[in-house]
Amino acid sequence: MLDNGPVPSRWPIGLRTLWIATATRLRDRDDVGNSVRMASSSGLDRARYAAMRWNTPLSVDHASLLVDRLELGPGADVLDLGCGWGELLMRAVEASGSGARGVGIDNDEQVLARARALAGARGLDRRVNFVHAESATWKQQADRVLCIGASHAWPGVEQALHALARVVRPGGQVLFGEGCWERPPTPAAAALFGEDVIALANIVRLARAADWQVLHLSTADQREWDDFEATWRRGRQQWLLDHPHHDRSRDVQDTLDAQLKEYVEVYRGVLGFGYLVLGR
């Protein structure tokens, strides 16, 4: 999951291809961008996602449910647009049984390197291929398509839903994941995320307008969100423990403190994330 291609005006690549990243993540990229780049030799870039299973608010049980709802069969081929390091894609291929194949597309070579290493360690390197490319330019069709937090690549939900119809084979299905308002946003949350986040009902409406059947719908719960946010910070917290005297440690700590504060005070329980299995 996750493609860090062109993003809406305030959506940074922090939580990379997952555009639900907050404005503090934009500050993490811009205000302390120099800190990140200067500290990268000490592993800060790698630490950013090191503690995360995948780059979306999703539990293992919820992921298993979504894979089950995709009704994958032996020999199915699975395409993940904005795959990140490909964890969900690999689990889908494993669940499909022998003969299943996967292709993951992302435009960040660093996370693709992690994906290839993970695939090799699990004996999936002959069944799953990771390609450095832009999701919006991919044309090859598949039986099942994953697109989680990557709608900005087209850009936008409506455009993505129409584009996905061109890369799924007739009778196929799409797992579409997208940020949404869990409840009406406060003025602070609305100012933070702008108009790029819409209500879940509007995502469903756009899916139906694009002639998709909504075969399954579920949303991330609060525990999934809390774990997602915590693991996103956790890698850099460990980096701070390992590099207490680095000349950029103070900047990184300040950024983490600001991110935690913003999550707890501004958008926890307000920002949601919906998963739709779509068929046509």
Give a topology summary:
Elements: H1 23-30, H2 33-39, H3 44-50, H4 60-69, E1 77-81, H5 87-95, E2 101-106, H6 109-121, E3 128-132, E4 142-148, H7 157-164, E5 168-181, H8 187-193, E6 198-199, H9 200-209, E7 213-219, H10 222-242, H11 249-267, E8 271-279
Helix pairs in contact: 1-11, 3-10, 4-5, 10-11
3D structure, described in words:
By secondary structure, the protein is of the alpha/beta class. The chain has eleven helices and eight strands. Strands 1, 2, 3, 4, 5, 6, 7 and 8 form an eight-stranded mixed β-sheet that branches. Strand 5 (168-181), helix 8 (187-193) and strand 6 (198-199) form a beta-alpha-beta unit. Helix 4 (60-69) packs across helix 5. It is globular. Mean pLDDT is 87; it is low at 2-41.
What keywords describe this structure?
single chain; 280 residues; alpha/beta; Rossmann fold; 8-stranded mixed beta sheet; 8 strands; globular
Concise overview:
The protein contains 11 helices and 8 strands. The protein is α/β, with parallel strands linked by helices and 280 residues long.
Instruction: Tell me the domain tally.
Output: 1
User: Low-confidence segments, ≥5 residues, pLDDT <50?
Assistant: 2-41
Overall average residue pLDDT: 87
Head-to-tail CA distance between termini = 22 Å
Q: Helix content range of the residues, please?
A: 40-55%
Task: Note the overall shape.
Answer: globular
DSSP helical segment count? 11
β-sheet strand percentage: 15-25%
Number of strands: 8
Please state the second-level CATH architecture.
3-Layer(aba) Sandwich
**CATH homologous superfamily designation:** Vaccinia Virus protein VP39
CATH classification, class level: Alpha Beta
Any idea of the CATH topology?
A: Rossmann fold
Listing every helix as H and every strand as E from the N terminus to the C terminus, the arrangement reads HHHHEHEHEEHEHEHEHHE
* SS-derived structural category: alpha/beta
Sketch the major β-sheet: 8 strands, mixed
Structural Rg: 18 Å
